[in-house]
Design goal:
The chain has 251 residues and is α+β, with helices and mostly antiparallel strands. The protein has 5 helices and 12 strands. It folds into 2 domains: 4-73, no CATH class; 77-243, no CATH class. The protein is globular, with a radius of gyration of 18 Å. The termini are far apart.
Length: 251
């Protein structure tokens, strides 16, 4: 199993400290010094604001960067590290520049959700996820390997640190479970962030394959696995029976 590392590259110490404050200080995220290798970036915006997600052992980074390793969770960890858990549909996806304490502006993507069902905890109303990165003026900042939200997508989301960390789901892609339908029957089933059907909650701790942040298209192999995948109701029941944190039991 290969852990994933989030690497922050920035030329100024002030902004590096700012971004570091948004990295999750929670179990499953391990801060490590990044290897040294001089890299030159030519695009000014990318030079100023770059976050890369790479596999440990394949890093090629500028001097002075910091990294965070995201370890896949076991299912009880996924559930109980959440601030709240919802079944929701994406209503809108917009970008904005936010003023940071250093005086610099950083792009954020705002994901407005229509909550269909509160599974655990007490989400705010309305619920809008703030994700570091976005597209503005023909330029884009993104977290490679992180799920990208599309309007109309329905998912079960394990939300953590919304507005306080760079990506507001538990262990990034491990907190994102799209709800899909079998083409032949219309039966709803749970998938992982990479589009792989979720047949057991034990599979949440497996590595997630890179798909550019988008849910992969179905294939004959995934279609067969989909027939064995958990339904949303089955997944929700397993979530609720795994809750041990009192905050998740609040109504």
């Amino acid at each position: 199993m290969h852990p994933v590392t989030i690497v922050l590259i920035h030329p100024t110490s002030a902004t590096r400290r700012e971004l570091s404050k948004m990295m999750p200080r929670r179990p499953g995220y391990t801060f490590v010094p990044a290897p040294t290798d001089p890299v030159r970036w030519t695009t000014g915006w990318i030079r100023r604001w770059l976050i890369a997600v790479v596999v440990v052992g394949c890093l090629s980074l500028a001097t002075g960067t910091r990294a965070t390793t995201v370890n896949p969770p076991e299912f009880p960890q996924l559930v109980n590290e959440s601030d709240y858990i919802v079944r929701a549909v994406v209503k809108s996806v917009t970008s904005e520049l936010r003023l940071m304490p250093s005086g610099k502006r950083m792009p954020f993507t705002l994901v407005e959700l229509e909550v269909k069902r509160v599974i655990a905890g007490k989400p705010p109303v309305p619920l809008v996820l703030a994700v570091l990165g976005g597209s503005m003026g023909g330029r884009e900042l993104s977290i490679s390997g992180a799920p990208k939200f599309a309007v109309g997508e329905e998912s079960i989301l394990f939300v953590q640190g919304n507005g306080r960390q760079i990506y507001p789901l538990v262990r990034m892609a491990h907190g994102h479970y799209p709800i899909m339908k079998e083409a032949a029957t219309g039966r709803e089933f749970m998938a992982r962030s990479d589009g792989a059907p979720l047949r057991s909650v034990n599979e949440v701790s497996r590595p997630i394959h890179a798909t550019g942040g988008k849910v992969a298209q179905s294939s004959p192999a995934t279609a067969q696995a989909a027939s064995q995948a958990l339904t949303p109701d089955e997944f929700i029941q397993k979530i609720r029976t795994s809750i041990t944190e009192p905050r998740l039991l609040e109504k």
